[in-house]
Amino acid sequence: MYAILGLIVLVALYAVFVYNGLVRARQMAEEAWSGIDVQLKRRADLIPNLIETVKGYAAHEKTTLEEVVALRNKAQSVPTGDVAGRAQAEGLLGQALGRLLALAEAYPDLKANENFRELQTSLETMESEIQMARRYYNGAARDLNVRVESFPSNLVAGQFGFQKRDYFEITNEADRAVPTVKF
């Protein structure tokens, strides 16, 4: 009798331990996603300043400027939980930003402009921080996914509705390509 009761208590304690581990992993993934979101918002806030600076020097590059603005707006309109959609939109925005920054090569006055250089440096720093945030999120998502899929924690995960997270990655090979700029 005591052996059965002891076994039930041990199983219950193990289930609580696994559940708490799943909750911790889910919270880490949510915190990591929040970090990506913050960095992407900072980049989105920087883009209008960059566009205005470039506009003064490259008025005839209107299509490139409009494309960056449209892609920024599209990226910001992706629902918060749509990791794959956000990754795709941000990949396209990154390509357009690359083309925008490459315009500086054609406009020496713009390249020498202090405001533009500061914005470019800020954007480059932000891109680095976004990459770090993506790696952190993907690591947290991986840890949660392993727990959700591994036996016996998958039994507890299934009972309490824990689900795998998508990775924040570029799925379109064209998004990985170096942007081409033609003048």
TrEMBL record:
Query: What InterPro entries has UniProt attached to this entry?
Result: LemA-like_dom_sf, MamQ_LemA
Where do transmembrane segments lie in this chain?
none
Keyword Hydrolase: yes or no?
no
Q: Name one GO cellular component term.
A: membrane
Q: How does it sit in the membrane?
A: Single-pass membrane protein
Spell out the Gene3D superfamilies in the cross-references. LemA-like domain
Which keywords does the record carry? Answer: Membrane, Transmembrane, Transmembrane helix
Can the keyword Transmembrane be found in this entry's annotation?
Answer: yes
Q: Where in the cell is it found?
A: Membrane
- PANTHER family per the record? PROTEIN LEMA
Protein name in the entry: LemA family protein
Q: Give the species.
A: Rhizobium altiplani
Query: What is the taxonomic lineage of the source species?
Result: Bacteria, Pseudomonadati, Pseudomonadota, Alphaproteobacteria, Hyphomicrobiales
